[in-house]
Amino acid sequence: MMAARTVAALSCLVMMLRLSEAAVYKVGDSAGWTTIANVDYKQWASTKTFHIGDTILFEYNPQFHNVMRVTHPMYRSCNNSNPISTFTTGNDSITLTNHGHHFFFCGVPGHCLAGQKLDLNVLRPASTTPLSDPPTSSSPPPLTTNIPAAEVPGPSPSLAASLPSPAMARFTAVVALLVSLVFANFAS
Ligand SMILES: *[C@@H]1O[C@H](CO)[C@@H](O)[C@H](O)[C@H]1NC(C)=O
Ligand SMILES: *[C@@H]1O[C@H](CO)[C@@H](O)[C@H](O)[C@H]1NC(C)=O
Ligand SMILES: [Cu+2]
């Protein structure tokens, strides 16, 4: 019983870590990047959760379309005069390397106005949750916790350095998987 529950918990953990790995999203799904299917790309983007490291794939006929990455004002006005970057292969993979909004449209005249435009929001990396929340009681926090970090010499007391890196997360996932396999053997 205990083992089965542990396995379930660890499997959950492994799943969560898997989900945190990079994903590839084909823009517009089967319709791709086009004007003829009347795809609502804003709606398409709103059904996804984009993370740093994910890839978006624009698939289209390069005779008729392209992909321009643009600023927000250019996106709003469909102004294609000065894109940040332009992609023209018809099979363009773009890896999302920073958080915040990313604006794209097709630079062929009229296509952006016809709705061939994409605004997607990449989430911030998971916030580094403090190990202990501030006390919710009305009493003032004890003075002893008030260490002025800037004046402490040597290694910073900040936990940031020891927070799990992606490599560490993968390592943890592998360990969790192995442990769950061992437990599964015990349980059966
Ligand atoms: C388009 O943007 C450029 C600068 O990137 C600007 O000079 C130009 O006036 C804009 N065109 C329109 C029609 O807004
Ligand atoms: C587009 O590129 C991806 C890799 O980025 C590849 O898997 C896929 O087969 C390509 N599709 C076409 C139609 O070339
Ligand atoms: Cu187009």
Automatic annotation (TrEMBL):
InterPro entries: Cupredoxin, Phytocyanin-like, Phytocyanin_dom
Key word Cell division present: no
Single GO cellular component term: side of membrane
Biased composition range(s): Low complexity: 127-136
An MF annotation (GO) of this entry: metal ion binding
Alphabetical keyword list: Copper, Glycoprotein, GPI-anchor, Lipoprotein, Membrane, Metal-binding, Signal
Signal peptide: 1-22
Pfam families (alphabetical): Cu_bind_like (PF02298)
Residue intervals of the Phytocyanin domain: 23-124
Renumbered residue ranges of the record's region Disordered: 125-151
Keyword flag Cell membrane: no
Superkingdom to which the source organism belongs: Eukaryota
Protein name per UniProt: Mavicyanin
Organism whose genome encodes this protein: Cardamine amara subsp. amara
